[in-house]
Amino acid sequence: MTTPVLYLMICGAGPAGHIAHMVRLARSDGWDVWCIATPAAVEHFLDLDALEELTGHPVRTGHQRTGQPPLPKATAVVVAPATYNTINKWAAGIADTYALTQLAELTGLGVPIAVLPFVNTALADNRVFHRSVAELRESGVTVLLGEDGFIPHPPRTGGKAMDSYPWRAALQAVAQAKSAAPA
Ligand SMILES: Cc1cc2nc3c(=O)[nH]c(=O)nc-3n(C[C@H](O)[C@H](O)[C@H](O)COP(=O)(O)O)c2cc1C
Predict the structure, then answer these.
(1) Which tens digit of pLDDT belongs to each residue from 36-78?
(2) 158 lines ligand 1 (CB under 6 A)
(3) Would you list the domain boundaries of the chain?
(4) What is the pTM of this model?
(5) Residue 86 Cβ < 6 Å to ligand 1
(6) What superfamily in CATH does domain 5-180 come from?
(7) Atom of ligand 1 nearest to the CA of 41
């Protein structure tokens, strides 16, 4: 029996420092978790060795290097935390990080993708952000923003928003893809 594969895309925002919690939740839901991280997530938030030990796989930050295992085909994708930067660049068709390149391809392939933003109200209230969220939704991506998802916090209160970050909503959003995956 093959275990369904979840790509967990990690961007550079506070919840990335708590990604071990999400990995444990996903694994206990039955996912084989492969992490892909942006340069900002690696620089400011992640302990790559700990994450590799937890998932059992190298964390991908770039294209496959000699000796690294290839990424297995994704059953579904979760982008969490998703930054203002990555959401806007992805929606605009920019692919200048490995994570964005993967997201561009996975969107085109129609792989189920759930996005859990972590942005404050100052960022979320930008017109460009509204446009990007609408664009991704029109492309078939599930953006968990608002009721039943992430609700932006006032600027400089992100630390308090961390405990209530709705990791589970992202897993619920891709649960159907897992059930439909061939055994
Ligand atoms: C300590 C710290 C906290 C940050 N928090 C956020 C955040 O909550 N939301 C956000 O969108 N960007 C946040 N940023 C800014 C992003 O890291 C920055 O825009 C970066 O370019 C994102 O790159 P990425 O989208 O490739 O991960 C934070 C940066 C730092 C250093």
Answers:
(1) 999 999 999 999 999 999 999 999 999 999 999 999 999 999 9
(2) yes
(3) 5-180
(4) 0.98
(5) yes
(6) Flavin prenyltransferase-like (3.40.50.1950)
(7) 27
